[in-house]
Amino acid sequence: MRKQILMTCIAATVPLFSIAISSCSKSSNGDTPVTPTDNLDKILFVNKTQLGNGDAEFEINGNYTLPKGTYTMKGWCYITNGSTLTIPAGTVIKGDRATKASLIVERGGKIIAQGTASEPIVFTSAQPAGSRKPGDWGGVIICGKAKNNQTEMIIEGGPRSKHGGSDDTDNSGVFSYCRIEFAGYPFATDQEINGLTMGSVGSGTKIDHVQVSYSNDDSFEWFGGSVNCKYLIAYKGWDDEFDTDNGFSGKVQFCLGIRDTKIADQSASNGFESDNNANGTTAAPFTSCVFSNMTIIGPAVQDASFANTSAYINGNGMNPNNGSRLGQFQAGIQIRRNSHMSCFNSIIAGYPVGIVIENDKGSATQSAATAGTFKVNNVILAACSILGSDKNKSFLDQYSDNGNTLDATKESFSSTFFKSMTSDKYYSDFSLLKLSTSAQYAPQAGSPLLNAAVFTDALLNSFDKVTYIGAFSGPTDTWMNGWTNFDPQQTQY
After folding, report:
1. Is there a contact between 100 and 125 (Cβ–Cβ < 8 Å)?
2. What pTM was computed for the model?
3. At 334, is the secondary structure helix, strand, or coil?
4. Residues lower than pLDDT 50 in the chain
5. How many CA atoms lie within 13 A of 290 on its CB side?
6. Strands 376-382 and 425-427
7. Tens of pLDDT along 209-245?
8. Which of 110, 395, 400, 466 could form a disulfide with 84 if both were Cys (CB 3.0 to 4.6 A apart)?
9. Are 110 and 136 in contact (CB under 8 A)?
10. Using one digit for the tens of pLDDT, what is the confidence trace for 465-474?
11. Is the dihedral of CA 302, 210, 194, 320 positive or negative?
12. Rounded to 5 degrees, what are φ and ψ at 68?
């Protein structure tokens, strides 16, 4: 008890620069902070500009507020159970490449990162402007106590932290008006940290207005949890834009995804990728997240000469040569392995395949689609090479009921399912959608996306009811104003 009181006094009396840390000590399960063995008055910052000391298990124990400023983060920094780190608006945290810098909020810990439209909080590469690449540092991970369908899991990417529990209203803090740039350093082969990774994050957590740019893996990935999110931007990531797994049940609305036409992952990059779990089992809770008002822009829309080949997809000068492997683009939306993800009122354009609904690993994903267990309603697909495919990486519109063998005499289930939904539409000519070619891809006058949204499905009861399909009401929509950055490579931080 005496130590706990001392920590409180330090946080209250030292002028915002002191913090209790444990540079090497750790708990056996990564869930309960260990009382530090070194001096509780140890200064966190080197010349008040460094967060972390470069260790792989640097712990923040206690409640602290960083002074507004610019910091270099070194090593893996854990906000432990019962601790809170508050980051003020306008702060910049630059991740160090040599130490694979990452910020990890553990179960029971909190991050309060509330930026503003005029002063966003920025997590970016410590490399100088002009030489930044995906995977320059680790990324941001938030772990919570909400449900997932594996009960308890170790978070993806290498850190020690576990996530999962029974509290779907768990609160991991605030992450709002934030940018994450050039994250995703691979801990090992195919074990990159995502731009923003959410493990069993509960609905008490606030996540909105977040832009992830040039992630070396997925831009956003949810592993279980029930957190609701709004106003997300996935910009020129390496793998998938929005990846959902392990029983994620949150609601997500108003999001933009834009690809670099020459960056795709060897696993085949998608706009959406959704699994119930890696093995495709029927473990509950099912992945049952609901997305609405998404604008997902694939490579073919942006470059008429796009070719889904290794000769074309060459990294565009951004290949970090850190073990990540370039590959191909695949689908605007891939639902597989017993996922029950739903999507409404959205536009997905310019992917080689429009939609994949796949019965791989013995799953019954297609039966769930037919039964209406999940919905793909009022969704517009445009400018795709083929409408649907039933087999991962096949790029063939042929029927498969097992995600393995194909029947060339039948159209894919995915195509026939999409066409059977009278509210869904396909446009081979992208120009008919009358979207701007600015960063927004917002509907112009006369666009079929305007006054076309439908919110009658019960799955949309808690969503904002708007009149338009996609993320934007039109070219004057302002939710991206001020806090976003579509050229982080050249920004001087």
Report:
1. no
2. 0.93
3. strand
4. 1-43
5. 17
6. parallel
7. 999 999 999 999 999 999 999 999 999 999 999 999 9
8. 110
9. no
10. 999 999 999 9
11. positive
12. -60, 130
